[in-house]
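Inverse folding, one chain.
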């Protein structure tokens, strides 16, 4: 950190030298943003940010933004260990080498800013411990919800609040696909192809459509909202690949939208306290604000004991929105460095994670069956055998087959899973469609 000449006009200005690891979508946008906003940043924060070194994998690549020659290197560890670097920004992604680089930066007494959801959802507790021991900051606003200031809202603004539930749409790709299926009546495959064409989905969309990306974000959200150790392995996950246009149509007729929801819930007190964390498609009433979040947008709906309900909405991904969130963290860390202080490190507790089997919900179950006598009786027997009571049923005839859509009364997940297994074993059942839990229903949650 270079303090300015006390006799100069800018005597309050301190130069903070930043080492950037990764200059791709987010890193490149950060370099552009810091260059473009340099004067405004200094004016507002009293800090002059200088990205003095940038590590990339391939030095020969053409880059729109990497600044003056000499800043680039392919030796990321040399940036971390450079004594002239005050703060490290990790925008490489994945577990390694990002984890080793962050650990080394903290050991060297450098605060770290990262957007790496995968790493934080897997090794967040360990990295927080390391930062606390080093007396340095580890900030990661951009890891969830892109530009939406969710991490700060939960960890700072709502620090005194007892948050009971956070529900969110945290993956823009799946929200785009489901919104298009609803609004343009396209099939899942058509909506996915469109999302890839428009840049809302990767050419390999597995991480998004199978819910891995949302599960990592849910683990981070739950850790912050409940001050607890929650890792991605604790999160129950179901993606959207089984959602059919018939499910979307049925939900619409009943006044619901289908969304891939991230849910983090706290129940009980003291020794009885437990946390449930899950990602799955859900039918949510059109009256709920989350049902109106369409396209690639993200939103997070927070329920607190005293604050009541609040919702944050915005662009959940993209180079520029994410770089804006990284820059906010960077300025916080730089100002803390200038004041020779750090943020308070959260105390992460071990809390029982409630398995999905203990969930009680209302469910929507779609079956494709052979259109012949006795099918309904056989299906009803399976529901009855497992104690799952049917609230309503709709039947649509196809040619030789029929589609049956059931809504259950409140039921236990383990009983519903046993029912699905029993239904799959029936000769008359051709296909068991996607299981969709119903949220915000008077008979449900
Ligand atoms: N993209 C988004 O919308 C978004 C939103 C929120 C959070 N994030 C998170 O932000 C992080 C970065 O994402 P991104 O989309 O910017 O990724 P990206 O475009 O793939 O960029 C990754 C960068 O890391 C560099 N890199 C890879 N391995 C390296 C190594 N061993 N040493 C040094 N540099 C290395 C790459 O170098 P080359 O350029 O030479 O290949 C590239 O510049 C990820 O954790 C991601 O999850 C992304």
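Residues assigned per position:
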């Amino acid at each position: 950190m270079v303090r300015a000449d006390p006799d100069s006009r800018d005597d309050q200005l301190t130069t903070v030298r930043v080492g950037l690891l990764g200059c791709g979508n987010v890193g490149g946008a950060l370099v552009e943003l810091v260059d473009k906003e340099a004067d405004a940043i200094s004016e507002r924060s009293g800090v002059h940010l200088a990205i003095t070194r940038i590590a990339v994998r391939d030095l020969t690549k053409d880059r729109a933004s990497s600044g003056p020659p000499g800043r680039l290197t392919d030796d990321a560890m040399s940036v971390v260990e450079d004594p002239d670097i005050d703060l490290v920004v990790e925008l490489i992604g994945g577990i390694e080498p990002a984890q080793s680089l962050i650990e080394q930066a903290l050991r060297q007494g450098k605060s770290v800013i990262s957007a790496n959801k995968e790493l934080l959802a897997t090794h967040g507790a360990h990295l927080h411990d390391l930062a606390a021991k080093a007396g340095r900051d580890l900030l990661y606003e951009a890891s969830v919800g892109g530009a939406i200031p969710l991490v700060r809202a939960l960890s700072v603004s709502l620090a005194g609040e007892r948050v009971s539930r956070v529900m969110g749409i945290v993956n823009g790709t799946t929200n785009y696909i489901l919104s298009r299926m609803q609004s343009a009546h396209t099939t899942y495959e058509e909506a996915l192809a469109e999302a890839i064409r428009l840049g809302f989905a990767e050419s390999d969309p597995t991480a998004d459509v199978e819910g891995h990306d949302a599960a990592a974000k849910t683990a981070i959200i739950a850790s912050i909202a409940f001050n607890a150790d929650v890792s991605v392995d604790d999160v129950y996950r179901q993606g959207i690949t089984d959602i059919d246009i018939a499910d979307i149509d049925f939900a619409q007729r009943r006044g619901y939208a289908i969304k891939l929801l991230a849910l983090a819930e706290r129940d009980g007190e003291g020794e009885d306290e437990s946390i449930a964390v899950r990602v799955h498609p859900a039918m949510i009433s059109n009256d709920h604000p989350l049902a109106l979040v369409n396209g690639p947008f993200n939103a997070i709906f927070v329920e607190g004991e005293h604050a009541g309900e609040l919702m944050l909405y915005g662009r959940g991904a993209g180079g520029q929105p994410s770089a804006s969130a990284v820059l906010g963290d960077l300025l916080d860390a730089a100002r803390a460095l200038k004041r020779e202080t750090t943020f308070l490190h959260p105390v992460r507790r071990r809390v029982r994670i409630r398995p999905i089997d203990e969930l009680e919900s209302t469910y929507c179950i779609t079956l494709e069956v052979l259109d012949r006598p006795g099918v309904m009786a056989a299906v009803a027997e399976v529901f009855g055998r497992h104690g799952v009571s049917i609230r309503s049923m709709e039947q649509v005839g196809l040619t030789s087959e029929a589609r049956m859509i059931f809504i259950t009364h409140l039921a236990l997940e383990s009983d519903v899973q046993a029912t699905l297994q029993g239904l799959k074993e029936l000769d008359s059942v051709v296909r068991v469609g996607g299981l969709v839990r119903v949220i915000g229903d008077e008979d449900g949650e």
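The mean pLDDT is 93. The two ends are 52 Å apart (CA to CA).
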